[in-house]
Design a protein that fits this description.
The chain has about 450 residues and is mainly α. Helix 4 packs antiparallel against helix 5, helix 6 packs antiparallel against helix 7 and helix 9 runs antiparallel to helix 10.
């Protein structure tokens, strides 16, 4: 069978598989076709369309790493604006997690979307492009595009097929742009709005994101019962392609909930299983989520130094984003000179779901190294978050009460004894409310493995 006939037959079969909610089958069919040597004989636009279709199928199957690779192949081939548009907007599945390892900017997608947006696309394409560029950036850089995607819906006739179908896409983009501490409180309202828009569009996958948004708002308020209800609702409604990701983020939440209640060994097993599932299913950042969770586990156990070998390659790959927990692990392992060498406190902590976690880690490094100026900056950053568990808002990991870190910073900075005691009392009260045992102090030297 020639390439043109094969391409048509496989594309039709893949489309039928998608219609029957079998995106994995569609992705595999398209992957097998694209592996044929004679596919190179097809014209460029047809090859772009096949790679774009595979990117969409992989995304709907929950295999985000494969999806991004397929989109990059489509972009590398695309010449005309129509082909670039098809490639950029090919990943049209609901998004709950970062699409790329490390959460950095997807430069190829970002640049292509920017060029098309500057050319003044049609209103519906503008919404799609803004959403695609939103997901190509980390949340702290995505706010403007996310808000613009929602605003651009006003250029579509109210109630039209495009407006109904694209509203959950734009609201999903806004969800991504809200995953920064300063905007976290908006997640519940966004989740309610997205649930309604997804119902009207018939998009169960976007309803899953709506439940995820409400779940994250609940974890931000440390209402673990409400978080479990929203996680259960997400699992109940998740289509096949969203189910794997939903199972994993809900499992990771159970891991951090176990850690909060003092069951560190059970938390460790749950983190390991969830991360292995993410990696096996082709979801990005499974190993990063495992290590973030294990940093909290090992810190609670006084064994953080054991993570130095695991964090070293991650630090080599991602640099400043991992420098604070890596330096803290080196300190715990009794290697302060190495900790000082890798630490880069002049680089701002990325304002995403882990900002509070890594800012607490930076504060503890400052305490361990006796760096008063950095400690003072960390105190100012953390003070508005008194009464919280550092990292718990992410639903993935925690360092324990922010007040405990503020108390330790206060000792280093010479704050009045009653202020330090007040923070220690607040930390104890929060632990009592959550059923959590006392957390270790950064000023208590950890055992050296």
């Amino acid at each position: 069978v020639g390439p043109l006939r094969a391409a048509g037959d496989v594309a039709a079969a893949a489309a039928r598989a998608r219609e029957q909610d079998a995106p994995r089958e569609a992705a595999d069919l398209l992957g097998a076709l694209l592996a044929r040597r004679d596919v190179d004989d097809l014209d460029v636009s047809r090859r772009v369309a096949l790679h774009a279709a595979r990117a969409a199928a992989c995304a709907h199957a929950g295999s985000t790493i494969e999806a991004v690779r397929a989109r990059h192949r489509a972009l590398a081939l695309a010449v005309t604006d129509a082909d670039v548009l098809r490639a950029v907007t090919s990943i049209d599945a609901p998004v709950s997690f970062s699409l790329s390892e490390g959460g950095d900017v997807d430069e190829a997608t970002d640049a292509a979307a920017t060029r098309l947006l500057d050319a003044g696309p049609a209103p519906a394409d503008r919404v799609r492009l803004l959403a695609a560029r939103t997901f190509a950036r980390p949340p702290d850089q995505a706010r403007d595009d996310a808000d613009a995607a929602v605003a651009a819906l006003a250029d579509l006739p109210a109630g039209s097929p495009d407006e109904v179908a694209l509203r959950p896409v734009a609201l999903n983009a806004r969800f991504w742009g809200l995953l920064v501490p300063a905007r976290w409180d908006g997640l519940d309202d966004l989740g309610v709005e997205l649930l309604d828009a997804a119902r009207r569009a018939g998009s169960w996958g976007h309803r899953t994101v709506g439940h995820h948004a409400r779940f994250l708002h609940a974890t931000g308020r440390h209402d673990l019962d409400a978080a479990r209800r929203h996680a259960a609702a997400a699992l109940a409604e998740a289509p096949s392609g969203q189910l794997a990701a939903t199972l994993e983020w809900s499992a990771i939440f159970e891991a951090v909930a176990l850690l909060v209640t003092g069951r560190a060994d059970d938390a460790e097993r749950t983190y390991e299983a969830a991360a292995a599932g993410m990696v096996a299913r082709g979801l990005a950042n499974g190993e990063a989520l495992r290590l973030a969770g294990m940093i909290g586990v090992r810190r609670a156990q006084g064994r953080l130094g054991e993570l130095v070998p695991a964090l070293a390659p991650l630090h080599a790959a991602f640099g400043p984003y991992v420098a604070d927990p890596y330096a803290l692990a080196l300190l715990a392992a009794g290697r302060p000179d190495e900790a000082r060498a890798v630490w880069v406190p002049e680089v701002p902590v990325r304002a995403d779901w882990w900002w509070l976690l890594w800012t607490a880690a930076r504060a503890e490094v400052a305490i361990g190294l006796g760096e008063g100026a950095v400690a003072a900056r960390c105190h100012d950053d953390l003070a508005p978050w008194a009464g919280r568990m550092a990292g718990l808002m992410s639903g993935t990991a925690t360092f324990g009460p922010v007040d405990g870190v503020l108390a330790d910073l206060g000792v280093l900075l010479g704050h009045p004894d009653d202020v330090v005691a007040g923070h220690r009392a607040a930390a104890a009260a929060l632990c009592a409310r959550l059923g959590s045992p006392p957390w270790p102090s950064a000023r208590q030297p950890a055992p050296i493995p």
